[in-house]
Amino acid sequence: MAPMITTSSSPSPAALPRIAVLATGGTIAGSAADASQTSGYQAGVVGVDKLLAAVPALASVAQIEAQQVASIDSKDLEASLWTTLAERIAALAAREDIDGIVVTHGTDTLEETAYALHLTVKTPKPVVMTAAMRPSSALSADGPLNLLGAVTVAASHSARGQGVLVAFNNRIHSARDVVKTSTYAVDAFQSPELGALGWVQDGRVEFARTVTRAHTTGTPFVAGAAWPVVEIVTSYAGASRTAVDALVAAGVHGIVVAGTGNGSIHASVQAALADARAHGIAVVRASRVGSGHVMRNGAAPDDALGFVSAGSLNPYKARVLLMLALIAGAYEPPALQRMFDTY
């Protein structure tokens, strides 16, 4: 079957959609003393009003309603902000006069926030995240164009029902697929396994494919008032069981392991994780590789030890899904595996 192609252009000024912009800080709201400085800046110090004022072209795309939700460097994000954002988005989406929502965010944890919202917000209205790799004070800052692109996507009817999207450097990504792949490049966000959903440029939005896995209104998940404690450990040459044993002693609810290759685990770490599972702690195998998927290994070790495969989710997104699955009451491996196979 040929991929679905949907396109749209900016609406006429007489019938502009109304888009809510929720700002949380990040590099897009960062500032440095020197315009040539693209590192060592202070993130989250520029308010949403100034961000919007820097993009006068927005006036021809949408009516904007802005809220400053947080002013943080996203490296310091706590899961409680996911709950706040999900609640704000729900309240806005319930309004008949709001056609879409844009969230500005830091790049460091954008992929985690995007996936958490992708699983918890309950609306078909477009929810689009964006960010920047250069602070607002920099020469050739990328934030203004990314913000314009995100608002353009959120204003497009073709973005409805696609879950949470990420608009960045003219590309449109699904929250489930997108990852940060560079420490400095303006095309830092990619969807390595499946590619972007589409693109946005000069007021035009085009989707070459659609999201197939269940999301938003098709999930049972809600953002928690209290989030389970789920941590990540890594397998590597010479790895010991020290980190896993410490986490078990600390009383974590789940552990995601960033394994080598197809989620394979060093023998010492695997033995510790087996002991963790015996204590009732959920264990999920992901991969540190960066693309591909982790195949379930049948009797050894998954069935024998009660481990769960993360599929194509990286360790950080696997952590998000595991937290939400635990909130939803899925504790045993078969139920958890169904969650990872579905979402």
From TrEMBL:
Residues 18-210 form the L-asparaginase N-terminal domain. The keyword Hydrolase applies. Residues 230-340 form the Asparaginase/glutaminase C-terminal domain. Keywords: Hydrolase. InterPro entries: AsnASE_II (IPR004550), Asp/glu_Ase-like_sf (IPR036152), Asparaginase/glutaminase-like (IPR006034), Asparaginase/glutaminase_AS1 (IPR020827), Asparaginase/glutaminase_AS2 (IPR027475), Asparaginase_C (IPR040919), L-asparaginase_C (IPR027473), L-asparaginase_N (IPR027474). It holds the Pfam family Asparaginase. This is L-asparaginase. It comes from Trinickia dabaoshanensis.
